[in-house]
Amino acid sequence: MLLEKIESLLNEVSSLSAKNTDEVEQLRLKYLSKKGEINALMSDFRDIAAEQKKTIGVKINELKQTATEKINSLREQLTETESQSDDIDLTRTAYPIKLGTRHPLSIVKNEIIDIFQRMGFVLADGPEIDDDKHVFTMLNFAADHPARDMQDTFFIEQSDPNDVTKNILLRSHTSGDQSHFMEKHEPPFRILCPGRVYRNEAISARAHCFFHQVEGLYVDKNVNFTDLKQVLLTFAREMFGPDTKIRLRPSYFPFTEPSAEMDISCHICGGKGCGFCKHTGWVEILGCGMVDPNVLEACGIDSKVYSGYAFGMGVERITNLKYRVSDLRMFSENDTRFLKEFESAN
Protein backbone atom coordinates (compact mmCIF):
# COMPACT_ATOMS: atom_id res chain seq x y z
CA MET A 1 0.00 0.00 0.00
CA LEU A 2 2.81 2.44 0.90
CA LEU A 3 4.70 1.66 -2.31
CA GLU A 4 1.58 2.32 -4.35
CA LYS A 5 1.11 5.68 -2.60
CA ILE A 6 4.75 6.63 -3.29
CA GLU A 7 4.40 5.68 -6.98
CA SER A 8 1.22 7.74 -7.21
CA LEU A 9 2.97 10.77 -5.69
CA LEU A 10 5.93 10.33 -8.07
CA ASN A 11 3.62 10.47 -11.08
CA GLU A 12 1.83 13.48 -9.57
CA VAL A 13 5.06 15.36 -8.87
CA SER A 14 6.48 14.65 -12.32
CA SER A 15 3.52 16.35 -13.97
CA LEU A 16 3.42 19.45 -11.71
CA SER A 17 2.84 22.87 -13.30
CA ALA A 18 2.30 26.44 -12.05
CA LYS A 19 1.27 29.79 -13.51
CA ASN A 20 3.29 32.01 -11.18
CA THR A 21 5.77 31.94 -8.29
CA ASP A 22 2.95 32.10 -5.74
CA GLU A 23 1.60 28.76 -7.03
CA VAL A 24 5.10 27.28 -6.89
CA GLU A 25 5.29 28.22 -3.22
CA GLN A 26 1.96 26.49 -2.62
CA LEU A 27 3.33 23.32 -4.25
CA ARG A 28 6.41 23.44 -2.04
CA LEU A 29 4.26 23.66 1.05
CA LYS A 30 2.04 20.81 -0.16
CA TYR A 31 4.86 18.32 -0.82
CA LEU A 32 8.03 19.45 1.01
CA SER A 33 6.97 21.27 4.18
CA LYS A 34 6.90 19.65 7.61
CA LYS A 35 3.16 19.06 7.21
CA GLY A 36 3.48 18.07 3.54
CA GLU A 37 2.71 14.83 1.73
CA ILE A 38 6.28 13.46 1.72
CA ASN A 39 6.91 14.12 5.39
CA ALA A 40 3.58 12.36 6.18
CA LEU A 41 4.95 9.17 4.58
CA MET A 42 7.54 8.90 7.35
CA SER A 43 4.86 8.13 9.97
CA ASP A 44 3.73 5.14 7.84
CA PHE A 45 7.36 4.16 7.18
CA ARG A 46 7.91 3.43 10.89
CA ASP A 47 5.17 0.76 10.88
CA ILE A 48 6.37 -1.38 7.92
CA ALA A 49 8.31 -4.64 8.26
CA ALA A 50 12.09 -4.44 8.64
CA GLU A 51 12.83 -6.34 5.40
CA GLN A 52 10.87 -3.67 3.39
CA LYS A 53 12.42 -0.59 4.98
CA LYS A 54 15.40 -0.44 2.59
CA THR A 55 13.31 -0.63 -0.57
CA ILE A 56 10.69 1.83 0.62
CA GLY A 57 13.32 4.21 2.05
CA VAL A 58 15.01 4.42 -1.36
CA LYS A 59 11.67 5.20 -3.04
CA ILE A 60 10.86 7.95 -0.49
CA ASN A 61 14.26 9.59 -1.09
CA GLU A 62 13.67 9.37 -4.85
CA LEU A 63 10.28 11.04 -4.40
CA LYS A 64 11.73 13.83 -2.26
CA GLN A 65 14.57 14.50 -4.72
CA THR A 66 12.20 14.48 -7.70
CA ALA A 67 9.79 16.92 -5.96
CA THR A 68 12.62 19.26 -4.96
CA GLU A 69 14.11 19.37 -8.47
CA LYS A 70 10.70 19.86 -10.12
CA ILE A 71 9.65 22.71 -7.81
CA ASN A 72 13.06 24.47 -8.14
CA SER A 73 12.84 24.13 -11.91
CA LEU A 74 9.37 25.66 -11.99
CA ARG A 75 10.48 28.53 -9.75
CA GLU A 76 13.49 29.39 -11.96
CA GLN A 77 11.42 29.32 -15.15
CA LEU A 78 8.67 31.54 -13.77
CA THR A 79 11.10 33.99 -12.14
CA GLU A 80 12.88 34.45 -15.46
CA THR A 81 9.60 34.83 -17.34
CA GLU A 82 8.27 37.44 -14.90
CA SER A 83 11.49 39.46 -15.08
CA GLN A 84 11.37 39.46 -18.90
CA SER A 85 7.78 40.70 -18.87
CA ASP A 86 8.65 43.74 -16.72
CA ASP A 87 7.29 47.05 -18.08
CA ILE A 88 10.69 48.75 -17.62
CA ASP A 89 12.94 48.54 -20.65
CA LEU A 90 16.44 49.45 -19.48
CA THR A 91 17.59 49.96 -23.09
CA ARG A 92 15.15 52.81 -23.67
CA THR A 93 16.05 56.45 -23.49
CA ALA A 94 15.28 57.93 -20.05
CA TYR A 95 11.79 59.32 -19.58
CA PRO A 96 11.62 63.12 -20.00
CA ILE A 97 11.30 63.89 -16.29
CA LYS A 98 11.19 67.63 -15.67
CA LEU A 99 13.41 68.72 -12.82
CA GLY A 100 12.20 71.47 -10.50
CA THR A 101 14.08 74.47 -9.13
CA ARG A 102 14.34 76.20 -5.80
CA HIS A 103 11.51 78.56 -4.92
CA PRO A 104 12.49 82.25 -5.30
CA LEU A 105 11.91 82.83 -1.57
CA SER A 106 14.28 79.94 -0.76
CA ILE A 107 16.89 81.33 -3.17
CA VAL A 108 16.83 84.75 -1.50
CA LYS A 109 16.56 83.40 2.06
CA ASN A 110 19.62 81.19 1.52
CA GLU A 111 21.52 84.14 0.07
CA ILE A 112 20.69 86.29 3.11
CA ILE A 113 21.75 83.49 5.46
CA ASP A 114 25.00 82.97 3.58
CA ILE A 115 25.93 86.66 3.81
CA PHE A 116 25.37 86.87 7.57
CA GLN A 117 26.98 83.51 8.28
CA ARG A 118 30.15 84.85 6.68
CA MET A 119 29.96 87.65 9.26
CA GLY A 120 29.83 85.18 12.15
CA PHE A 121 26.08 84.71 12.68
CA VAL A 122 24.78 81.23 13.47
CA LEU A 123 21.25 79.94 12.85
CA ALA A 124 18.70 79.65 15.64
CA ASP A 125 15.06 78.67 15.32
CA GLY A 126 11.95 78.53 17.43
CA PRO A 127 8.33 77.33 17.32
CA GLU A 128 5.77 78.76 14.91
CA ILE A 129 3.11 78.17 17.58
CA ASP A 130 4.33 80.09 20.63
CA ASP A 131 3.09 81.85 23.75
CA ASP A 132 2.48 85.54 24.43
CA LYS A 133 5.35 85.59 26.94
CA HIS A 134 8.07 84.98 24.33
CA VAL A 135 6.41 86.73 21.37
CA PHE A 136 5.32 89.92 23.18
CA THR A 137 5.93 90.19 26.94
CA MET A 138 9.69 89.51 26.98
CA LEU A 139 10.10 91.83 24.00
CA ASN A 140 8.73 94.86 25.87
CA PHE A 141 5.32 95.06 24.17
CA ALA A 142 2.84 97.13 26.20
CA ALA A 143 -0.20 95.33 27.60
CA ASP A 144 -2.48 97.33 25.29
CA HIS A 145 -0.25 97.11 22.19
CA PRO A 146 -2.33 96.59 18.97
CA ALA A 147 -0.30 93.48 18.07
CA ARG A 148 -1.95 91.75 21.04
CA ASP A 149 -5.41 92.19 19.49
CA MET A 150 -7.18 89.45 17.54
CA GLN A 151 -7.37 91.86 14.60
CA ASP A 152 -3.57 91.76 14.24
CA THR A 153 -2.52 88.31 15.51
CA PHE A 154 -3.89 84.78 15.18
CA PHE A 155 -4.57 83.62 18.74
CA ILE A 156 -5.15 79.87 19.18
CA GLU A 157 -5.89 79.44 22.86
CA GLN A 158 -6.52 81.58 25.94
CA SER A 159 -4.97 79.36 28.61
CA ASP A 160 -5.55 81.69 31.55
CA PRO A 161 -7.94 84.69 31.34
CA ASN A 162 -6.01 86.34 34.17
CA ASP A 163 -2.56 85.93 32.59
CA VAL A 164 -2.16 87.06 28.97
CA THR A 165 1.44 85.79 28.86
CA LYS A 166 0.12 82.22 28.64
CA ASN A 167 -2.04 82.82 25.57
CA ILE A 168 -1.07 80.57 22.64
CA LEU A 169 -0.71 82.13 19.19
CA LEU A 170 0.86 81.89 15.76
CA ARG A 171 4.03 83.95 15.99
CA SER A 172 3.76 87.32 14.29
CA HIS A 173 7.55 87.75 14.01
CA THR A 174 10.67 85.64 14.56
CA SER A 175 11.78 87.93 17.40
CA GLY A 176 10.26 85.31 19.71
CA ASP A 177 13.06 82.97 18.61
CA GLN A 178 15.50 85.52 20.02
CA SER A 179 13.80 85.64 23.43
CA HIS A 180 13.85 81.82 23.56
CA PHE A 181 17.56 81.85 22.78
CA MET A 182 18.49 84.67 25.18
CA GLU A 183 16.83 83.09 28.22
CA LYS A 184 18.85 79.88 27.69
CA HIS A 185 22.28 81.22 26.65
CA GLU A 186 24.90 83.50 28.11
CA PRO A 187 26.36 86.30 25.96
CA PRO A 188 28.24 86.80 23.75
CA PHE A 189 26.23 85.40 20.85
CA ARG A 190 25.44 86.36 17.28
CA ILE A 191 22.35 84.61 15.88
CA LEU A 192 20.15 84.68 12.79
CA CYS A 193 16.48 83.58 12.99
CA PRO A 194 14.75 82.77 9.68
CA GLY A 195 11.18 81.47 9.57
CA ARG A 196 7.54 81.83 8.59
CA VAL A 197 5.32 84.24 10.51
CA TYR A 198 1.58 84.97 10.55
CA ARG A 199 -0.51 88.13 10.82
CA ASN A 200 -4.24 88.70 10.53
CA GLU A 201 -4.20 90.77 7.36
CA ALA A 202 -6.37 90.85 4.25
CA ILE A 203 -4.64 89.08 1.36
CA SER A 204 -3.77 91.40 -1.50
CA ALA A 205 -0.99 92.10 -3.98
CA ARG A 206 0.94 93.92 -1.22
CA ALA A 207 0.07 91.85 1.88
CA HIS A 208 -0.54 88.26 2.97
CA CYS A 209 -1.63 86.48 6.14
CA PHE A 210 1.71 84.65 6.23
CA PHE A 211 5.18 85.62 5.06
CA HIS A 212 8.83 84.96 5.88
CA GLN A 213 11.31 86.89 7.98
CA VAL A 214 15.01 86.80 8.78
CA GLU A 215 15.98 88.51 12.04
CA GLY A 216 19.45 88.97 13.50
CA LEU A 217 20.69 89.58 17.05
CA TYR A 218 24.12 90.34 18.45
CA VAL A 219 24.70 90.70 22.20
CA ASP A 220 28.12 91.32 23.75
CA LYS A 221 30.00 93.88 25.79
CA ASN A 222 30.42 97.35 24.24
CA VAL A 223 28.19 96.76 21.20
CA ASN A 224 27.13 100.08 19.66
CA PHE A 225 25.09 101.54 16.81
CA THR A 226 28.20 101.94 14.64
CA ASP A 227 28.65 98.15 14.67
CA LEU A 228 25.04 97.74 13.53
CA LYS A 229 25.42 100.25 10.70
CA GLN A 230 28.57 98.61 9.35
CA VAL A 231 27.03 95.12 9.37
CA LEU A 232 23.94 96.36 7.51
CA LEU A 233 26.02 98.29 4.97
CA THR A 234 28.05 95.15 4.27
CA PHE A 235 24.86 93.12 3.87
CA ALA A 236 23.29 95.66 1.48
CA ARG A 237 26.35 95.74 -0.76
CA GLU A 238 26.65 91.95 -0.80
CA MET A 239 22.97 91.54 -1.65
CA PHE A 240 22.35 94.43 -4.06
CA GLY A 241 25.79 95.37 -5.39
CA PRO A 242 28.97 97.17 -4.27
CA ASP A 243 27.66 100.64 -5.16
CA THR A 244 24.60 100.37 -2.88
CA LYS A 245 24.18 103.16 -0.33
CA ILE A 246 22.11 103.01 2.87
CA ARG A 247 20.37 105.52 5.10
CA LEU A 248 18.88 105.06 8.57
CA ARG A 249 15.72 106.94 9.53
CA PRO A 250 14.53 107.22 13.18
CA SER A 251 11.62 104.90 13.94
CA TYR A 252 10.00 103.06 16.85
CA PHE A 253 9.94 99.37 17.86
CA PRO A 254 9.06 98.16 21.37
CA PHE A 255 12.14 95.93 21.57
CA THR A 256 14.84 98.35 20.37
CA GLU A 257 15.96 101.82 21.51
CA PRO A 258 17.05 103.75 19.51
CA SER A 259 15.31 102.26 16.50
CA ALA A 260 15.60 102.92 12.78
CA GLU A 261 14.23 101.99 9.39
CA MET A 262 16.90 101.26 6.80
CA ASP A 263 16.61 102.30 3.16
CA ILE A 264 18.91 101.39 0.29
CA SER A 265 19.58 103.44 -2.80
CA CYS A 266 17.30 102.20 -5.58
CA HIS A 267 19.32 99.67 -7.59
CA ILE A 268 17.05 100.14 -10.60
CA CYS A 269 17.62 103.84 -11.17
CA GLY A 270 20.84 104.16 -9.17
CA GLY A 271 19.22 106.63 -6.76
CA LYS A 272 18.12 109.08 -9.44
CA GLY A 273 14.41 108.43 -8.93
CA CYS A 274 11.98 106.17 -10.79
CA GLY A 275 8.50 104.69 -10.51
CA PHE A 276 9.78 101.73 -8.48
CA CYS A 277 11.22 103.94 -5.70
CA LYS A 278 8.39 106.50 -6.09
CA HIS A 279 10.94 108.98 -7.43
CA THR A 280 12.71 109.28 -4.08
CA GLY A 281 15.84 107.31 -4.97
CA TRP A 282 15.43 105.16 -1.83
CA VAL A 283 13.67 101.86 -0.99
CA GLU A 284 12.96 100.64 2.54
CA ILE A 285 14.17 97.08 3.27
CA LEU A 286 14.35 96.48 7.05
CA GLY A 287 13.99 97.71 10.62
CA CYS A 288 16.76 97.71 13.21
CA GLY A 289 18.04 99.21 16.45
CA MET A 290 19.85 98.68 19.73
CA VAL A 291 18.23 96.05 21.97
CA ASP A 292 16.13 97.74 24.64
CA PRO A 293 17.62 97.17 28.15
CA ASN A 294 14.17 95.98 29.30
CA VAL A 295 14.36 93.12 26.80
CA LEU A 296 17.80 92.06 28.05
CA GLU A 297 16.65 92.13 31.66
CA ALA A 298 13.46 90.17 30.85
CA CYS A 299 15.64 87.47 29.31
CA GLY A 300 17.96 87.32 32.32
CA ILE A 301 20.85 89.34 30.81
CA ASP A 302 22.46 92.16 32.79
CA SER A 303 21.87 95.30 30.70
CA LYS A 304 24.55 97.19 32.64
CA VAL A 305 27.18 94.76 31.38
CA TYR A 306 25.89 93.78 27.95
CA SER A 307 24.37 95.61 25.02
CA GLY A 308 23.29 94.46 21.58
CA TYR A 309 21.67 95.24 18.29
CA ALA A 310 18.86 93.56 16.35
CA PHE A 311 17.47 93.80 12.84
CA GLY A 312 14.69 92.15 10.87
CA MET A 313 13.62 91.96 7.24
CA GLY A 314 10.89 90.32 5.19
CA VAL A 315 12.18 87.77 2.69
CA GLU A 316 9.33 88.60 0.29
CA ARG A 317 10.36 92.26 0.43
CA ILE A 318 13.97 91.50 -0.49
CA THR A 319 12.84 89.10 -3.23
CA ASN A 320 10.60 91.81 -4.68
CA LEU A 321 13.51 94.21 -4.75
CA LYS A 322 15.81 91.72 -6.48
CA TYR A 323 13.31 90.35 -9.01
CA ARG A 324 10.58 93.02 -9.10
CA VAL A 325 7.67 90.66 -8.39
CA SER A 326 4.54 92.81 -8.49
CA ASP A 327 2.15 90.54 -6.56
CA LEU A 328 2.98 88.82 -3.24
CA ARG A 329 0.32 86.18 -3.88
CA MET A 330 2.39 84.73 -6.71
CA PHE A 331 4.88 83.34 -4.17
CA SER A 332 2.28 80.94 -2.73
CA GLU A 333 0.17 80.06 -5.79
CA ASN A 334 2.63 77.43 -7.13
CA ASP A 335 2.12 78.54 -10.72
CA THR A 336 4.89 76.73 -12.62
CA ARG A 337 4.97 79.45 -15.27
CA PHE A 338 6.04 81.91 -12.59
CA LEU A 339 8.48 79.54 -10.88
CA LYS A 340 10.25 78.64 -14.15
CA GLU A 341 11.36 82.26 -14.46
CA PHE A 342 13.83 81.64 -11.60
CA GLU A 343 15.65 78.64 -13.11
CA SER A 344 18.74 80.69 -13.93
CA ALA A 345 18.81 82.10 -10.37
CA ASN A 346 18.79 78.63 -8.77
At the first level of CATH, the class of the largest domain is Alpha Beta
Query: What is the count of DSSP helices, taking H or I runs of 4+ residues?
Result: 11
* Whole-number total of structural domains: 2
Unreliable spans are none
Oligomer: single chain
Major sheet:
7 strands, mixed
Description:
The protein has helices at 2-14, 21-32, 37-45, 50-84, 104-117, 132-135, 175-182, 225-240, 293-298, 315-323, 336-339, and strands at residues 122-123, 129-131, 155-157, 168-170, 189-198, 210-220, 246-253, 256-265, 282-291, 307-314. With 346 residues, it is α+β, with helices and mostly antiparallel strands. The chain folds into 2 domains: 2-84; 104-345, Bira Bifunctional Protein, Domain 2 (BirA Bifunctional Protein, domain 2, 2-Layer Sandwich), CATH 3.30.930.10. The strands form 2 sheets. The chain has a 7-stranded mixed beta sheet, with helices on both faces. 28% of the residues are buried. Its cofactor is Mg(2+). One of its GO terms (molecular function) is ligase activity. It catalyses: tRNA(Phe) + L-phenylalanine + ATP = L-phenylalanyl-tRNA(Phe) + AMP + diphosphate + H(+).
